[in-house]
Hints:
- There is one protein chain.
- It is built from four helices and seven strands, in the order H-H-H-E-E-E-E-E-E-E-H.
- It has about 150 residues and is α+β, with helices and mostly antiparallel strands.
- The chain has two domains: about 1-30, no CATH class; about 40-130, Immunoglobulin-like (Sandwich), CATH 2.60.40.790.
- The strands form two sheets. Strands 1-2-7-6 form a four-stranded antiparallel beta sheet, with no helix packed on it.
- Strand 6 (about 120-125) and strand 7 form a beta hairpin.
- The protein is elongated.
Amino acid sequence: xxxxxxxxxxxxxxxxxxxxxxxxxxxxxxxxxxxxxxxxxxxxxxxxxxxxxxxxxxxxxxxxxxxxxxxxxxxxxxxxxxxxxxxxxxxxxxxxxxxxxxxxxxxxxxxxxxxxxxxxxxxxxxxxxxxxxxxxxxxxxxxxxxxxxxxxxx
Length: 154
């Protein structure tokens, strides 16, 4: 949710205004639940980045506050899946900009990755999955024949 509708300076000892403000925020949020742009942050969490270095594909995901025991990494054919859950430490009403709950991100990876050589490391709230890229044959240049060359050969 965006910032408060009522300036903080107005709240002071007027808890009633604070409660009213939270009710307006909740009403506004519920009115737009299900709209594609309203769920963008939740739908894209956790964010991932990928890059190739030294013949390996590296996939990183920031997972602060997620217990590594609550994360699962799997590779099926050419799809890497990272799923898990960030559990809230407390229940009840609270101001929350942090996304909690279950998550799942999938991404396509090159065919032929050996699943036995995939590694995953979790340190300082960052998950890094490393996949050795399959060796591919060097591209073979195919000559293009033109009509004039064909006529000369005949």
